Amino acid sequence: MITVISPAKNLDFESQPTTDKFSHPELLEHSEELMSVCRELTPAQISSLMKISDKLAGLNAARFSEWSQPFTTENAKQAVLAFNGDVYGGLAADTLTAEQLDYAQSHLRILSGLYGLLKPLDLMQAYRLEMGTKLHNSRGKNLYEFWGSIIANKLNTVVAEQDSQYLVNLASNEYFKAVDKKTLSAQIITPHFKDCKNGQYKIISFYAKKARGLMARYIIENKVTQLSQLKQFTVDGYYFSEEATSKELEPVFLRDEQN
Description:
Helix content is about 35%, strand content about 15%. It is of the alpha/beta class.
């Protein structure tokens, strides 16, 4: 199975990476084109475009200005160790073994507004450019039009290399929308995670994000290849519910109310 996850807004470029291994993003020529647009934005324009504070806008204007190739271990960090959000808390990549990281490098991909598609150990420089950003560019009015079928074509290459039947979508709707599903050659599995609150099972964003990371790790640790194996996921109290699942490729995992 090939698994895709979203990036995170929060970044960690302070702590030392837990591995010396690294690779380079494969779509950097496209990233450079986006950066040529982003570098022209003023902090005020960034604030308006991204709906962020003036302080964050200033920080990201500086990041755009400083972004440059070549990427090295001195000016960049492995993506899976640089992102620092809820999904990555569940994935806990800094505790994966060397063998597990190698497996992740072949089977896990991170969607990105700036980089398109990242391997876990791809070096990246700090940025903020969410996939839903309406950044006018040479290819259209937003990043979905910019990336077009490029991300799906790259995923098809990974699927073919690993002879995989399935692509597991553990990304948010905002990011997975950037994958051209008509172009994609694999069957898409989209798990859903629901927590019990006040007697009802519902998707609670914080828990669901962490659960996506937990499942991504489960797939890596167990080298999952089949849907039946995926349904055996029972990490952190979640369990597959046949009754709650209405579509075969959208398995629902429930977790009872936490004490």
